[in-house]
């Protein structure tokens, strides 16, 4: 077989996946592969998968079918969370040549070189308990903002979630390595870094998760220490914290962000439910009262701060009353937008033993109700800042003659494209 020379990537799921795809792409480019767009003809197609919802699984299978139709001779490699959780299921999809689990993802070049089309699908995976070590990754040149992975895995056991089974225990980079990555990104012209991880606030357990037994405040390294050091890196104008659990978002972190010029007034804090009963069934580590306290403190110190919220609808046992509780709670909170997820049954999760099961049509109705609420919240939040001048970092993408960017507090701005504004922070009157 001729050695594969070109590769195309497609990413499903979270920002962490995007940062890893970008790193895998650079890794293969260093090995002599030419990067192609996914819609183009390539020798190898790599799909980095998600497994949070059933839809992500379906999407993966659809993409493989698309590749089969347009490039039947090309190699198809599947990695990511779905690949770790169900490698045998993926290997049976017609057209798949290689399945890479969590431990083998970053050895992709070696595996591709050993592949030949037409052989039965090869599975390179191990038990998630055996996955150790931390692979730093960041996105570069894909968009103006860069996503820097500083933490991976999760030690929580939320009853709806497969992530611990897909990514293993909580592990993280060292502060020194993160600083080094941030300096590299600054040298490459990055202006904004979004810190990403599976459970970001749990940073500090080390590459093998050895810090798991020690409380956060007793660890030599923790998330608070990390952001203090990042704040000193020259050349980076803006940082965002991608998502942080309410029980790990401490008062000192909030206070630090409020007084920092570089950390943007923007938090994304998963809630999942506004009903304490449902939160208990979900095995979340806080009650809604703590969540409300965090929002109150943020808004007291940063009235202009954007707050995004993750919420799941249709979880088993979520009665009409419990959903109303969630709706009323979210309605009362001073938040900016919602990310609404429809509960999706996941194999080997505790939630499957709970009930009663919420009918699918009810789940979809609840999703729609909260998406409408999100729209109203965002409209209201944006309206509060009308006439204000805020700093916008413009993205490099030219979308039909338009350029877009975000204010410090995450209000999206769209305007006719101007080359000189790309990757520049511009004063903008809303």
Précis, in short:
The protein has 13 helices and 19 strands. With 430 residues, the chain is α/β, with parallel strands linked by helices.
**How much helicity do the residues have?**
25-40%
Distance between the termini: 58 Å
Give the count of helical stretches: 13
As for the number of domains, it is: 3
Q: Give the amount of beta strand, in percent.
A: 15-25%
CATH first level of the largest domain: which class? Alpha Beta
What structural category characterises the helix and strand content?
A: alpha/beta
Spatially, the strands of the biggest sheet line up as 2-1-3-4-5-6
In one word, what is the shape?
globular
Describe it for me?
- There is one protein chain.
- This protein has 430 residues and is an alpha/beta fold.
- It folds into 3 domains: 6-130, Methylthiotransferase, N-terminal domain (Rossmann fold, 3-Layer(aba) Sandwich); 137-381, pyruvate-formate lyase- activating enzyme, CATH 3.80.30; 389-429.
- Helix content is 33%, strand content 21%.
- It has helices at residues 15-30, 54-70, 81-85, 87-91, 108-113, 163-167, 175-187, 223-230, 251-259, 276-282, 288-301, 320-332, 360-384, and strands at 6-11, 34-36, 44-49, 75-80, 98-100, 122-124, 137-138, 145-149, 151-152, 171-172, 192-196, 238-241, 266-272, 306-313, 337-342, 389-394, 402-407, 412-416, 425-429.
- The strands form 5 sheets. A 6-stranded parallel beta sheet has the order 2-1-3-4-5-6, sandwiched between helices. A 4-stranded mixed beta sheet has the order 7-8-11-12, with helices on both faces.
- The model has no long low-confidence stretch (mean pLDDT 91).
């Amino acid at each position: 077989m001729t050695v594969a020379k070109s590769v195309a990537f497609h990413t499903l799921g979270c920002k962490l996946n995007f940062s890893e795809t970008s790193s895998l792409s650079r890794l293969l480019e260093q090995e002599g592969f030419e990067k192609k767009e996914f819609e183009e003809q390539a020798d190898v197609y790599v799909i980095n998968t998600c497994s949070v919802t059933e839809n992500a699984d379906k999407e993966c299978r659809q993409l493989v079918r698309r590749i089969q139709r347009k490039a039947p001779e090309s190699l198809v490699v599947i990695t990511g969370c779905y690949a770790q959780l169900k490698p045998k299921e993926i290997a049976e999809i017609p057209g798949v040549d290689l399945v890479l689990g969590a431990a083998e993802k970053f050895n992709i070049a070696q595996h591709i070189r050993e592949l030949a089309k037409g052989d039965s699908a090869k599975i390179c995976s191990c038990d998630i308990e055996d996955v150790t070590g931390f692979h730093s990754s960041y996105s570069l040149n894909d968009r103006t903002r860069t996503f820097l992975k500083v933490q991976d895995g999760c030690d929580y056991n939320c009853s709806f979630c497969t992530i611990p089974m897909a990514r293993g225990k909580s592990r993280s980079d060292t502060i020194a390595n993160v600083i080094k990555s941030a300096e590299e990104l600054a040298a490459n012209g990055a202006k904004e870094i979004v810190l990403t991880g599976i459970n970001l606030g749990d940073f500090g357990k080390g590459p093998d998760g050895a810090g798991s037994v020690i409380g956060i405040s007793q660890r030599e390294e923790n998330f608070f220490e990390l952001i203090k050091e990042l704040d000193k890196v020259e050349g980076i104008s803006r940082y965002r914290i991608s998502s942080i659990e309410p029980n790990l978002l401490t008062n000192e972190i909030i206070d630090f962000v409020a007084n920092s010029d570089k950390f943007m007034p923007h938090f994304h804090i998963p809630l999942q439910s506004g009903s304490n009963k449902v939160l208990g069934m979900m095995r979340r580590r806080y009650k809604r009262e703590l969540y409300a306290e965090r929002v109150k403190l943020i808004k007291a110190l940063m009235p202009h701060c954007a707050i995004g919220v993750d919420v799941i609808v249709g979880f088993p046992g979520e009665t009409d009353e419990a959903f109303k509780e969630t709706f009323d709670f979210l309605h009362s909170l001073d938040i900016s937008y919602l990310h609404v997820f429809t509960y999706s049954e996941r194999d080997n999760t505790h939630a499957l033993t709970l009930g009663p099961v919420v009918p699918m049509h009810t789940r979809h109705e609840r999703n729609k109700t909260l998406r409408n609420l999100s729209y109203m919240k965002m409209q209201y939040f944006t309206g509060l800042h009308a006439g204000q001048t805020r700093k916008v970092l413009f993205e490099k993408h030219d979308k039909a003659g338009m350029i877009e960017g975000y204010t410090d507090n995450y209000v999206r701005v769209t305007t006719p494209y101007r080359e000189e504004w790309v990757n520049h922070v511009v004063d903008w009157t809303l």
